[in-house]
């Protein structure tokens, strides 16, 4: 049994190291859920802002369309006004030319007589008065026509000025609306970019959450399996302890009142729980049913002897081992941990019988 001790201790040390190192997690499931909720709220907020901004953009587009109609109507009025002004300007020029020609006709006749001679050439007084009245009416009518035409022309000039001013104001208003629309569109584009990033972040968090849920499920399954194994081991240990207690009581009763020989020995430990070991000793003893057993050198201690081992209790010398030679014994334990705890000791045992 001795040659297995070093390997057993190394294996136990590795088990202790592995079981004490816990998993390293970037974020717990609760933290990931919180991150997911916060990111979803951010996405909802951005969506709300995008919708509100798009509504403003649509409103601006409608205002631009209405303004375009106003600009088109204003340009049409300006074109009409320019057409009317051109016609009136032409008519004024023609009237001026006509007036000049008419005045010249009134001032001179074919024999170079002036207007007065034309009036005085009347045949009678009534003819004279008639000619004077006619000339006055004609002159007043020409003057009134010229005045009305000039007034109308001036009104059209004023209207055209107002239309030009209105056009400049409408153009500025359209430019402002175009700038506002462009600014709003930039805001929408930026929010869409932020939304895309948040959605990507949400997808990453969801992926991590799934991985964390899987990891926690695996840990819970391992914990449940470990608890089950520990419960089974505890039950087995309790059963072995009960068996050991009963056997120890029987051995104590068998040894009661009997003298014994003492022997100094080196005591190591072994267990049937070690891989590759049989549950049966060299004498055929079942080490599971009778765990209080030691391996001895039959030349020093006879097999099937009843022995008292300090720190262990009464035991049967029911096994042997290749490394058990001379004053060396190997005490049996149900578990490897008990073997490690026992270690190697120098003790004095008592051979009861």
From TrEMBL:
What GO terms fall under cellular component here? outer membrane
Keyword flag Signal = yes
Query: Which stretches of sequence are listed as region Disordered?
Result: 181-204
From the record, give the transmembrane residue ranges. Answer: none
Protein's UniProt keywords contain Hydrolase: no
Q: What is this protein called?
A: Hypothetical cell surface protein
Give the source species: Latilactobacillus sakei subsp. sakei (strain 23K)
Q: State the Gene Ontology BP annotations.
A: peptidoglycan turnover
